[in-house]
Amino acid sequence: MRLEKNSPCKVNLLLNIFGKRPDGFHELETIMQPVNLCDRLTFERRGGAVELSCSEAALPVDSHNLVHRAATGFLHAAKISGGVRIHLEKKIPLAAGLGGGSGNAATTLLALNELFGQPLPAAKLNELAAALGSDVPFFLQNQPCARHRSRRKNPTARFFSALRDKVFLLIHPGFGISTPWAYQNLARFPEALNGGRARAKTDFKTSDRRLARCER
């Protein structure tokens, strides 16, 4: 059996950073919007291990790749002894803040669950996604969401009717910015850590926040 899946990206409609917490995370307030710019992944049941290939030579195809880690984690959690072959066709720019890698990981979890007959419930997929990265659980669904680091919270599609049937114009500057590097350098720009709280208010009684890992 062979599956082909599109893996979309996202944009942050708002991103407030409130400083670093004692646990090594930054406290954020953000709303993320899915965007229909997609990578393409192909999945086949094959062999006894995870085999990953990719059209982008700059990306690793071992455990340093989120797709590989997602597939390995899924097979272990589902107690599946067989393997899978995955090919990733990249269209989303790297290190562009679009969540391409996170989307690839979430798409892998969903696709493998389908490929192997739905052995894992949604709650377990969300748990696996959260362990892979802060943004991965967002891509298990397809609505705008106010986000917490480890889980999806409050889908907000009904509050963004102004975006319905509209397109996003995404302009890539020709270079990428590493997320760990960006957070490591925030201390040089203290004004960036003083965003006004509750800017993400919609019709919620309180704003949701997300915690993002400050990678050292």
Q: What does it look like?
A:
The chain has 216 residues and is α+β, with helices and mostly antiparallel strands. Helix content is 21%, strand content 30%. The chain has helices spanning 66-77, 100-115, 122-132, 179-184, and strands at 2-20, 25-45, 50-54, 84-89, 145-148, 151-155, 210-213. A hairpin with a 2-residue loop joins strand 5 and strand 6 (151-155). Helix 1 (66-77) runs antiparallel to helix 3 (122-132) and helix 2 packs antiparallel against helix 3 (122-132). Residues 148-152 and 202-216 have low confidence and may be disordered.
Radius of gyration of CA atoms, rounded to a whole number: 18 Å
Main sheet: strands, sense, barrel: 7 strands, mixed
**Low-confidence runs (pLDDT<50, min 5 residues)?**
148-152, 202-216
The residue-averaged pLDDT reads: 83
Structural class: alpha+beta
Number of strands: 7
Strand content: 25-35%
Shape descriptor reads globular
**Portion in helices:** 10-25%
Distance between the termini: 41 Å
Count of helical regions: 4
| Elements, N to C (H/E) | EEEHEHHEEHE
Quaternary structure state of the chains depicted: single chain
